[in-house]
Amino acid sequence: MPWGSRGNHQPNANGNDNGKFSNANRNRKNYSSPWKQKIAQQRKSLPIASVEKRLIEEVRKNDILIIVGETGSGKTTQIPQFLFDAEFCRDGKVIGITQPRRVAAVTVAKRVADECGVELGQKVGYSVRFDDSTSNSTRIKYMTDGLLLREALLDPYLSKYSVIIVDEAHERTVHTDVLLGLLKRVQVARSNSIGDGRNLNNGNKSSPLKLIIMSASLDARTFSEYFGDAKAVHIQGRQFPVDLFYTRFPETDYLDAALITIFQVHLGEAPGDILVFLTGQEEIEAVERLINERLTKLPEGSQKLLPVPIFAALPSEQQMRAFAPAPSGFRKVILATNIAETSITIPGIKYVIDPGLVKARSYDPGKGMESLIVLPTSKSQALQRSGRAGREGPGKCFRLYPENEFEKLEDSTMPEIKRCNLANVILQLKALGVDDILGFDFIEKPSRTAIVKSLEQLFLLGALTDECQLSDPVGWQMARLPLDPIYSKALILASEYNCLEEMLITVAMLSVESIFYTPRDKYEEVRTATKCFASPEGDHITLINVYRAATDLLEKRTMDTNKAKSEKVLRKWCKENFINSRSLRHARDIHRQIRGHVQQMGLKLASCGDDMLQFRRCLVASFFLNAAVKQPDGTYRYPTQLRNSWAGPSGLLAIYSLCSKVIHTLQIKISFCYLFLIAFTFTSKKKNTLFASSHNRALASGEVVQIHPSSVLFRKKPECIIFNELIQTSNKFVRNLTRVDNLWLTELAPQFYAMQN
Ligand SMILES: Nc1ncnc2c1ncn2[C@@H]1O[C@H](COP(=O)(O)OP(=O)(O)OP(=O)(O)O)[C@@H](O)[C@H]1O
């Protein structure tokens, strides 16, 4: 591969003059063993070590501080320790650090516990969805931003925290953005409660909440303005240089370019592991196979190369394999999605290969359509990726595009909140007591259409009342479940339809990337191999059949006390049946977790056995927004909800939300409720005419879609279907579908498919 190179040697901060810890560090454990001394030495050499005192002063002086510092300078691991040493955890208070990703929260917490010489879960811990490693003595707590949002449901003042650090804020995940708005409110509420001399929840004493917003690639000005001209500090210097290399010409096949580069590094560069950024599970698994194939062609005696995948859908213990040292004699090549892009240090990584692409969510609110698309990364993402090298020594980053392409990249990624369905966010905000969603202080407001469409969706799902409040119990139950609202509703309904066991399996199987492994152009082979699971009713029941077959197989093997042996049998069975064993294992894990949730909520856990009629009806009642009807030309159409966003419930909700803000201040809420009800009656009638009063007509005016070739209903082409996934390649395809009776739409979802009177 032709490489142009541009050295990017940045000042090495090893030579920083200070290198001394502040007085507070004298109380630390005595680093006696060589390992502890090494860690202490490493900490001292971090660029951030020289500014500890100044940073602490700034935190004392400012309630909100924005910190920007190079990747690897020590922000995530060191600042919480500095704050602890400076007694920000007096009175049992906790320092909370949020991360956009769980893998970062877990691995950084482990590292910091090591650095402090304590057991994980004691002074230092982490908490992520379904996995809590904290105790009453935890004072430095790493967690996902989503988890802190959930904590706010139980403790609106976040009263146990003295400092909250929002790390990697540049990622602008939807959770980060909502959290920022929420933290602003909490900070004001905490200050007011001090003024009033009140105590917070749980009898905790009122104290101000300090906020720190951090990243290596942050647009400090945007954040500073959002927080009322908050102070921003920049930490100079990085630990080790990373040389950047670009291709001379654009690559037509980036996967092939990545493969060639992997082997060029493996065969030509000094020891050190490789980290490659790819766009998703399927791509990672394809590259893993290709590496293994090419390895067989290398001359005997060549150095060994071990591919290790890491992506979000991989069970945590498998993700952790990426962090384990390569076996002796091997070089490790980690194949990662952007899960490994920020915050983490993967020991051993010296080389980064970055094709410059990322799979991102995209949402068309007009059509109510959410999809995943592959996009070029932003400059800030490219910087984060190269920053995964140069953390333990000098590194190299190979960008698989020419340098002038880099200049054309956007500076930062478009905030997720502007490109996703907001139903979940709104549900969470409502549960947090935020009534006026359109008036919520977002750092960047999502579009009015997106908010209104999501309100409309929640309204149709029965999560919101006519007054735009969370409905009791459905809306509150939905807010409690850590799932997409549409899936939460499906579980709640399934308990009424006596098929919760089946729906739990369905939701778990739909939550993982792809259960069937379908090599390109091998659909027929897969179809033959998977015939024994295929249900004439569609993919949902097929997925249930696969899950149950795997469970039966494992139950038979429980006679075998040897877990590894039964795992091996399952893997073999998966391979023979073109089933992705990783996805299946992940689905089993999710199933176990959400089953626990619904049990706690007291939902009725019943099975409909082999009578799948109830289950299919429940699918309609739950996923009615995703119905499609066959057209004479064999394509399908599905409704894009109300096309005119100022008519029907969406318009109503928009008007309600807008007016409620004004009216709220005028304190004439009661009469407004009446106004709302009258308007609702009016628009309900209008809805009938808008849909031409027949579901078929509504569907006929919607989007054109086709059944994906991987579906068991690809050839059968039933009249009416319910689907769960819409993907856009050359055409728009629907995946994961079930045949339903089109009369069920009006019967089971009259709120959407209104019949003409
Ligand atoms: N698990 C680990 N193993 C070895 N060294 C580590 C580990 N975690 C952190 N380090 C060391 O600590 C340094 C600082 O890491 P830290 O995550 O605090 O940096 P950061 O400034 O937050 O980086 P980023 O902006 O990339 O998140 C790393 O560059 C590395 O040298």
Automatic annotation (TrEMBL):
SUPFAM superfamilies: P-loop containing nucleoside triphosphate hydrolases. Residues 7-38 have a biased composition (Polar residues). Residues 56-236 form the Helicase ATP-binding domain. GO terms for molecular function: ATP binding; double-stranded RNA binding; hydrolase activity; RNA helicase activity. The keyword Hydrolase applies. GO terms for cellular component: nucleolus; spliceosomal complex. It holds the Pfam family Helicase_C. Its EC number is 3.6.4.13. Residues 1-38 are annotated as: Disordered. It is an enzyme of class 3 (hydrolase). Keywords: ATP-binding, Helicase, Hydrolase, mRNA processing, mRNA splicing, Nucleotide-binding, Spliceosome. It catalyses: ATP + H2O = ADP + phosphate + H(+). One of its GO terms (biological process) is positive regulation of transcription by RNA polymerase I. PROSITE patterns: DEAH_ATP_HELICASE (PS00690), HELICASE_ATP_BIND_1 (PS51192), HELICASE_CTER (PS51194). Residues 254-433 form the Helicase C-terminal domain. This is RNA helicase.
